Predict the structure of Flp pilus assembly CpaE family ATPase.
Amino acid sequence: MVVEKQPKKIIIAIPNSKFAEGLKKHFERKNFKVIEIVVVLEHLMETLEMLEEEGESVDGLLISSDIAKKMNNKRLELFSDTLLTLREKYSHMSIVVLSNEGKGHPVLAEIVSMGIYNIFVKSERSTLDVQGVISAFDTPVPFSEVSHYREFDRSIQWRTIETQRANRLDFPKKIENKRIEEDGDNNSDKQTIYEKKIINKQVVKKEFKFNITNQGEKVVGVPIEAKIILIGSFMPRSGTSFVAHNLTKYISDLGVGVSYIENPFQKAYTYDLFIGHEKAPAYISKFYYYTEGSSDKHSDKTTKWKEGNINWVVKNPTLEPDYTESDIDDDDMFKLLLSLRSTPIIIFDVGEDWGKEIYQSLYDIADEVFLIVQPDIPNIQYYLDSQKPHHEFLRKIDKSEKVTWIGNQVTKRMLKTDVMKELSEYMIDVPSFNSEYTYQSQFEGISVFDNNDCKKVIEDSYYPIIQKILPHEFLKKRKKGFFEKLFNKKSISVTSSNAQNEGEIKS
């Protein structure tokens, strides 16, 4: 009986995803199975740990020294320390290193000292020996071929002062994930969130679902799937914040946990709108924390503002600026999303900032995207004809299955016109409200949804949006429970009590 040889499972850790995909095809032709491509060094350990938890073994790792590079900083000390950690924790795993550092560089000496001999140095070859790289996983490079790397040029400075070695090469200390403390659901509780540097969006999607969806939350006995919702537009002042606020309040009113994230690149708005200086005077956003760190001058501040089922992530205009993309990057944004995993629904108010790479990255992992449009024919025509990159991006994605158009202040009659149909054959229309209602709501520091005269209208018109976010079974149970209360005299009596007593009775 002939036993078929199982393909070796490997990970490719190279920052150039296109190059990595090309290598993957070469490996698979040689009966290897590439189970993951990692493009950022900090994500490598998390990927290995996640695969280990899923019972997936990894036989080999192909890694490039360039994967440690961030901006102009090569961070070779981090690369070397990571390799040693991998050798200690995954000693069974074959490691092949592609190095852009030439003969005489100290990092090569450190790699050899770890017992890693499968080293391919770019400066020594005109082209990469792909077949040699693949063969190294079956037939390791002998020590005699790499022993010359132990002789290194001591004048090459590459480690920082904090990580500087003595005259001899010592093994680096095992690296650990950097941790930050975030508030848990209770003020006294703290939960540890591990920073994850994530760029590969497909891996992010997998990891985000693994970390958040698996938390599991049930409301009225129905599991609520974790979702990221983006709300934006192609033009300013379209009502994205208005729709996002009402939708956040609506979801919360249904008893589901929800986080609202304000666009950090725009002027602060929500904090003042909902009278943050009274409701959360010590609040400062996580954006500020990520960019400034925990300074002593703000030791009396908190990054948590929670009202009922809502987590508000907004800017405090007194203390915070309009951030730039150099202040907040993909890493910060994904770290923020992970820290909000206690709420299954996350609503991100993008506004018209689709030109920013960070939001195009978020689109890749979003579950639903709602694009807001107002009945302004010149602006719509401008969008359809525009050559601006962010408009081209929106036109590229605006017909996808996860994108839904919402007509703000658009009537059903307008939906039948050719102008609206050119945007989308299917559009959800939400009504306009008398300016007195919106002004009165702002004066009271509440959303229009919280205004009793407007709530029923919003519930009816926003219901098609809610159906795209929450499970049908959940909404069916909620509707059934509503009618049961409606025809139960005792329930009517309780509901008409003040909000505080109502909460006490229900609990």
User: Anything to note?
Assistant: The chain is about 40% helix and 15% strand. Residues 321 and 363 are 25 Å apart (CA to CA). The radius of gyration is 27 Å. Confidence is low (pLDDT under 50) at residues 161-201, 489-507.
